[in-house]
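Students often ask what a holo structure prediction actually looks like on paper. The answer is less mysterious than it sounds. You provide the chain, you provide the ligand, and the output is a string of discrete structure tokens encoding the 3D arrangement of the protein together with zinc ion.
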Amino acid sequence: MSNIIRTQGFIPDQMLLRVGRMTGDPAYTRTIYKTSLLTQRTALNSIPYRVAAGKADRQIYDCRNTERLPGFKVRFEGEKEVSDQIVNECYKVLGQNRDFLKAVLGINGLDDKGSNFIGSVHYGKDYENAFSNGRQMVLGDGGKIFRTFCTIVIIGHENFHTRIALHCDLEYQDESGALNESGADAAGCTNDMWVLKIKSADYHWLVGKGALDPSINGVALRSMLHPGTAYDDKILGKDPQPDRYSKFVHTYADNGGVHTNSGIPNRAYAEYCINAGGYAFDGPFQVWDQVYNGSDHISSTANFQDFADHSMVIASRDLPKSVDALRKAWAAVEITVK
Ligand SMILES: [Zn+2]
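The corresponding structure tokens follow.
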């Protein structure tokens, strides 16, 4: 069980800081502070990443713009639609995440023991982020820049952090932290492709598509296939993600660039899926999941090379016809594997 606590939500702190500075709106920096309080509170309540025992049921709560979790019960498994559309959307998306994990990985709940899928909407006032504390999803309403957090890519991303925490538990710092972020992006996008039944070669590979206001010059928060091209905007700045290892960004910010350098393994995953052909959820994602969460998963301090080497071992074992596709994908990001 994890003792490593992430202190960032889906929108990276660095991005919130910049938006706060450029807009003069205090909501963004307050969101960083509130998120760190949330994680600290989870930690003080003993075990972080304590999943919610149950029958893989959906439970949606409404915080009514307070910061009390989980909030007021509003729609539980099997109950009919309510008038608040964000509640219905959260219910639907958590179902898409649960059903994907079951169909593609064969797991029942994030812990494979039927942990419930809990979501709290309308969290806080002007809370500009989405967050999982292991036990549940927490969704703010968003505002002018970040329009919505209730999408399958975002919820699939956040919940995969919990799955990682239950297995390899990658430290949220430097290369291991970037691998933690990258796995979450891979899971979110693959969940989306599964919902859409779309092939890897036909997918946009964007993380957070539709989350940015149309006034922003950008298409998403990140591009898995073309890191560094998601946005270039006066408020957000330019997408800082590198697309290969020689462009690795050395920084103390963002837990050592976890949301920046994730561009490197992100691109490796996207290229692997495309090179392998067909559907990402029909082989490549299962290989990736085994690297993070299999019985012989990578260690909590794995770096990119460790991850790449182990992915080759798993692919040789589980999907041998994809080995050349995988080697080519790692070569594209300048990581050499045997
Ligand atoms: Zn993340």
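The longest strand covers residues 58-62.
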